[in-house]
Design a protein that fits this description.
This protein is mostly helical and about 425 residues long. It has a domain at about 245-355 and about 365-390. The chain is built from 18 helices and four strands. It has a two-stranded antiparallel sheet. Strands 3-4 form a two-stranded antiparallel sheet. Helix 8 runs antiparallel to helix 9. The longest helix is centred in the N-terminal third of the chain and has 26 residues, at about 100-125. It is globular. The two termini are about 15 Å apart. This is Glycosyltransferase family 87 protein. InterPro entries: GT87. Its main location: membrane.
Length: about 425
Amino acid sequence: MRKVWRAGGRARTPDGAPGDGLARWARGRAPWPVLTAALLVYLLSAGRMLGVRRTGMDNAVVVRAARTLLDGGSPYADKRFLYLPGAVFAALPQAPFADRTLTRAVPFVTAALVLAGVVLALRIFDVRADSRLAAAVTAGLALFLPFQAIVHLGNWTAASVVAFPAALLLALRGRWSAAGVVVGAAVALKPMLVPLLLLFVLARRWRALAWAVGLPALVSLAAALAMPRPQLFLTKTLPFLLHGQDDYAAPYDASWTAVLPRLGVPHHLAFVLGACAAVAVLGFARARWRTGGDEALRLVECGSLLMLAAFLVSRPSFVHYALVILPALVASVVVRGAAARQVWFWMPLVPQVAGVPWPELGGSRRHAFKDIVMFTGAAAVLALAVWRRRAAAAPKVTVSGAPYSLSSDPDPRNASETR
């Protein structure tokens, strides 16, 4: 019989490894000076954006759309407003505040949402919010360029940074319908988590899938009916998105279809290569789900592969999208056999450490070359982990009622050994 342990009210298998030295150390409570220092560095990193030009500009676009609606205009008259109709009404509470006030508040609100996502990601693996791992992740994020980017922009991807681990945590606890509601609510604001719908398909959780699809559809329809000229979303905004936005956003796009042409690859070939890479990653996501193992690890790695498949081919793919999946992947380091325990998992993240100069890649318009390494590297490491895990599961036959590996000693056994 397979051994199980109880950790945080949930049964864990040897893969969860309470006897694992690294897991024990990471789960242990951090001294309060260490936690205080980590939070201080985190807040200073967020506060640093107050002195940067155009702080909160992505959030400002959504607020401007909400103000346009209040003035009787169509939010989609602004080509920079690219979200679904529900986001307009979600931004209405910000409309009365002055731009100066929002510029000061947005970096800290965004940082708080990212930190909430980190806490939820840690809870997936029963790691405390005051643990050594929590302190390390918090301090590490302060030096991580994707975090600095999302705090500077005030991008609404922050909602997905919270929703992704929240949905996986609910699914882990058997509350799949609630997970579908969380995903649907996030998609209603920004369709970042659309690839996660395939997780419900793999798990055959059709009611959860119905929530995840139906909720944003209803919210978007109701919001569209309540605003002037909603058809602009279909005639103006959607074509703009399908063409990868414009020359303003193109240098920051880290998808294969955007970066490879900058290296001399023809556009059509770049799209084909990106599509092939995405299909391959989707195949590995399916294989990861079928492999099984620790349920928390399976949900996180499979969900991350689904998201990475979209990041590789869809346009645009910006650097801060990495924050949707990385907190949960990093939290999985407490599980033996996790991809995050491989040194190769961390290598693609090194170029994203702030303050480290990289020759020819220091400018913001060349940052996408580092970003594509991060997305592609993370997908490759997760795919390789799936490949190795499936290869390690050697086929077995039964000899006199006992499990017998095809690579076992071929010498015959006595009867007492096979009972």
